[in-house]
Amino acid sequence: MNNGFKTGFLWGGATAANQCEGAYNEDGKGLSTQDVMPQGIMGPITEVPTEDNMKLVGIDFYHRYQEDIKLFAEMGFKVFRLSIAWSRIFPKGDEMEPNELGLEFYDKVFDECLKHGIEPLVTISHYETPLHLAKAYDGWRNRKMIGFFENYVRTIFTRYKDKVKYWLTFNEINTLLHAPFMSGGIMTPKEELSKQDLYQAIHHELVASALATKIGHEIMPDAKIGCMVIALPIYPLTPHPDDIIKMMATDRSNLLFSDIHVRGQYPSYAKRLFEENNVHIHMEPGDEEILKHTVDFISFSYYSSACETADQDKKASQGNILLGTKNPYLKASEWGWQIDPQGLRYVLNTLYDRYQKPLFIVENGLGAVDELVEGPDGRKTVMDDYRIQYLNDHLVQIREAIHDGVDVMGYTTWGCIDLVSASTAELKKRYGFIYVDRHDDGSGTLKRYKKKSFEWYKEVIATNGESLQN
């Protein structure tokens, strides 16, 4: 049996503009929703940016992108997933004309990637809506957002059509139900939003996503445009039929998003979901036609699985934005995210069986507290064998899924260089192959150091997965 990974498999790493760029107010950039979220997903929203927001500086990728991309090239990256900060291109979001300095920055970044033989994989909207759109329009609750987004995507597709072949529309679009401000720029407090409000906002995003796919295929016929969702395999906590039915319902609440992106219409099970939640999607003429513009591939983040039960007494939250019930058979990371490599094989098979579309794992990794020490060669490093083990085990399961017959395009580890956590806005929660000397109190030199995992991943890429340990 060969190692499974096809020739041309897209190995690489992933970041997001708001978690690494910094330079939040340079070269004409407007404020984004992330600039007023100093404590991450669940923390308070501030009126203006505050000094305790680590994302304002990030890891200063804005000024150090050449150094960082050179390190990615040294590892052998074939692809680098990054996002464009919408408010760098349209500082308020509702202008007609873009900010040229913002466009020039991404020209330089993409050119630097291509110089090193790295394909950019670009997320158009990664958890940062221009703050003005949130304040003036209540974000994606307002249908006008579709027009603003269309202007944005036409601008960047036209500008970068010869530099970027791979695009994603909205990062983890299925999180809008759970984190409406971060995911959708919705200023109205979550507790004041009805299911009607949330699903209507989701409809606006889904139409905008399909419209971006349509426009992208017109402007860039050879480009590949994908959706991006959180993949969360759901297991029944017990074999009790009530738990199986509850699992099915929870699974469908996530699959709804990929179903619409891939099949071009609302699935039949949405009818009951909407009836039971008193949801009536208002569709404008043409919406159904726009939704038929489907994606070329499905990308997803995978960090953990979850259990589901109908027994409310056994409910226990854990994990990422999409919460579930703790699995008694799995260990967890320092942040309580349960570790389940086989869940990745399972979800790859499930999605491929359902859609027969190419799949791309664009986020996967282990957040951990890393210690900078002196390595065997006298250089500072991090002996992150725990991260190597985590990634190795997940990659082995991807290989198994490929042997199962799944078409997997590529794999980009999350936070290939340390960056600010989206969920907690901490820097001590590190994911990277590259250690960045910056800390939660704002101290540090921002100097980069290669971790032990750097050389490990370099070998994995060089051998196209042959070096993985079963």
UniProtKB/TrEMBL annotation:
Q: Which UniProt keywords apply?
A: Glycosidase, Hydrolase
Q: Which GO terms describe its biological process?
A: carbohydrate catabolic process
Q: Name one Pfam family in it.
A: Glyco_hydro_1
Any GO MF annotation of the entry: beta-glucosidase activity
Q: An example Gene Ontology cellular component term from the record?
A: cytosol
Name the residues annotated as catalytic in the UniProt entry: 363
Family annotation (InterPro entries): GH, GH_1_N_CS, Glyco_hydro_1, Glyco_hydro_1_AS
**Source taxon at top rank:** Bacteria
Task: Give the protein family.
Answer: Belongs to the glycosyl hydrolase 1 family.
Name of protein:
Glycoside hydrolase family 1 protein
